[in-house]
Write a structure and sequence with these properties.
The chain is α/β, with parallel strands linked by helices. Helices cover 54% and strands 8% of the residues. It is built from 20 helices and 10 strands. Strands 1-2-5-4-3-6-7-8-9-10 form a 10-stranded mixed β-sheet, with helices on both faces. The longest helix has 30 residues. The protein binds NADP nicotinamide-adenine-dinucleotide phosphate.
């Protein structure tokens, strides 16, 4: 659609002059910069100043922000280097030169890259007392000696700089708020300026969180540079475990067979080996998900209080339990897929046919073994039940599902059913080992198989959990979690009455 530009339309002209407050000479120069994109919806000079906002920069973010501000009912005036040629502005906005635009509103969003901030220096007079919202981000951490917002404040000392909105992208602004991008962070020295920015954020449907003074600006500028920060540790653990077990199993199966029997079974790497690595990593990661909770309980028991901070490493570990759990579910899912394709594998079909043909040739039959059938069915059944609960845990970690659960329901699923999942999966693995634990042929080159190694951690977690749920330990832990402190009885005799009668 062809858009009509109305340069020097009378209303725009009056508005520019009204708001600029410039000398006649300046006004006549600035007049030629005044462009309205729609005669019907241009920023209404009758609007109170609080209902008008200015955006410097007509690029991606400026455009999207302007559009959202217009939709929220604000009068929007863009400040641009080339007001005449700004062709992609939202319908209803007005575009002026920087100086005139600055005069039109109290609050100015700076949607310009930090490298160009020096264009603001000559505007120091027009920007005096204005609230400047610094939206800028950097390409990497510590790119500049000081935060962009602090730099902006040093260039325009007469203005009140507020850092904020930089965690939103132009794309998310255009697409409207969703749960994920509703939160914005702000910081700045002036409480009044921050209130003005919070008011705009609220009207845009965003929720603004005041993070404090301008010294926090660098932290806010680093936010958008973060790449899955909570997933980093769990991903490293998953990759480390997968690599370690892959090489361990490669040596024990493929290389061992080649060295001792001269057999090339390297084709097993693709499915058989992968189908051993996945359940091993999955079970260890599920244990790692429940181990910190158990350790925290023992630490509270040892300290006799819940009011002392956990060590940093334990805090960090507890915070990434969800990611550990979700990754372990991913590995369990791969294990299920690999197991389901076993019957259609060429090597398996070949061996089954070969075995059947050899039985016919030799006129032999085999007897049905009920014990083996029981073992196989129990092993598979525990695996299926464990995986079902695994999926349930994964679903209940979704934010929308969490929101629909009470705290008690959430903790029942994640703690009680979570430990039950660990128990079922551990039992599934013990059944896999079955009578091979005591067979010497299992220990190739005197090394235990992978499934035995992976049973160590879940067994320890389950044993510790069993200790914690014994009545005497459980009673003490519950008292501690309700605020009781060991030793406080002596300090204050009133506290000696038990919290749980
Ligand atoms: P952009 O598309 O490159 O637009 C920047 C605008 O700044 C230009 O359109 C131009 O507007 C103006 N400008 C360019 N050179 C200038 C100069 N020398 N002097 C004065 N003004 C100049 O950038 P953007 O993506 O909108 O980003 C703007 C700021 O927002 C950046 O600091 C960025 O880090 C931050 N940010 C962007 C996003 C995003 O999703 N894009 C998200 C968060 C934060 P005129 O031609 O109209 O003058």
């Amino acid at each position: 659609m062809q858009r009509t530009f109305h340069c020097r339309s009378s209303t725009a002209e009056v508005f520019a002059c009204l708001c600029s407050g410039m000398t006649g000479q300046e006004r006549s120069e600035e007049k030629s910069e005044c462009v309205s994109l729609s005669p019907m919806m241009e920023a209404d000079p009758a609007l109170p100043e609080s209902e008008r906002v200015c955006v410097f920069g007509t690029g991606d973010l400026g455009h999207s922000l302007g559009l959202r501000l217009l939709q929220a009912g604000y009068g929007v005036v863009f400040g641009s280097r080339r007001p005449h040629s700004s062709s992609r502005l939202p319908h209803g906005a007005q575009v002026l030169g920087h100086a005139a635009a600055a005069q039109s509103a109290h609050l100015i969003f700076i949607a310009v890259q930090r490298e160009h901030y020096d264009f603001l220096v000559p505007l120091a007079n027009q920007l005096k007392g204005k609230v400047l919202v610094d939206l800028s981000n950097n390409l990497r951490k510590n790119q500049y000696p000081e935060a962009n917002a602090e730099y902006l404040q040093s260039l325009v000392p007469g203005a009140e700089v507020v850092k904020g909105f930089n965690t939103l992208s132009a794309w998310s602004l255009q697409n409207g708020p969703s749960d994920a991008n509703r939160q914005v962070y702000i910081c700045g020295e002036s409480a009044e300026a921050k209130e003005a920015v919070i008011a705009v954020a609220t009207k845009l449907g965003l929720s603004a969180l005041d993070r404090g003074s301008i010294s926090v600006a660098r932290e806010l500028e680093d936010f958008p540079l973060q790449l899955f920060p909570q997933w980093r540790l769990p991903l490293r653990i998953a990759i480390g475990l997968s690599a370690a077990f892959f090489f361990y199993l490669l040596i024990r199966y493929v290389i061992y067979a080649y060295v001792t029997q001269g057999k090339d079974i390297s084709f097993r790497i693709m499915v058989s080996l992968a189908n051993q690595v996945c359940p091993i990593v999955s079970l260890i990661m599920l244990s790692l998900c429940y181990l910190p909770g158990v350790l925290a309980s023992f630490l509270q028991l040892y300290r006799g209080t819940k009011y002392r901070r956990f060590p940093n490493w334990l805090d960090r570990w507890m915070l990434c339990r969800k990611q550990l759990g979700l990754l372990s579910l991913g590995f369990a899912f791969l294990h299920v897929l690999y197991t389901l394709i076993i019957p259609i594998r060429y090597s398996v079909m070949f061996w089954v046919t070969e075995h059947t043909v050899s039985l016919i040739r030799e006129n032999r039959t085999t007897m049905f073994d009920t014990t083996t059938a029981w073992h196989d069915d129990s092993y598979l059944s525990l695996g299926i039940l464990g995986f079902g609960l695994y999926v349930l845990l994964g679903i209940t970690s979704l934010p929308s599902v969490i929101n629909s659960l009470s705290w008690r329901e959430f903790s029942f699923v994640q703690s009680k059913l979570g430990h039950l999942t660990l128990l079922l999966c551990t039992a599934h693995t013990y059944l896999y080992g079955w009578n091979r634990f005591l067979s010497s042929s299992t220990y190739k080159w005197y090394t235990p198989p992978g499934y035995m190694l992976c049973l160590v951690l879940p067994s320890v977690v389950l044993l510790l959990k069993l200790l914690l749920i014994t009545p005497c330990v459980d009673r003490t832990i519950t008292r501690i979690r309700q605020g009781w402190e060991r030793g406080a009885d002596q300090r204050n005799p009133k506290d000696s009455q038990p919290l749980i009668p």
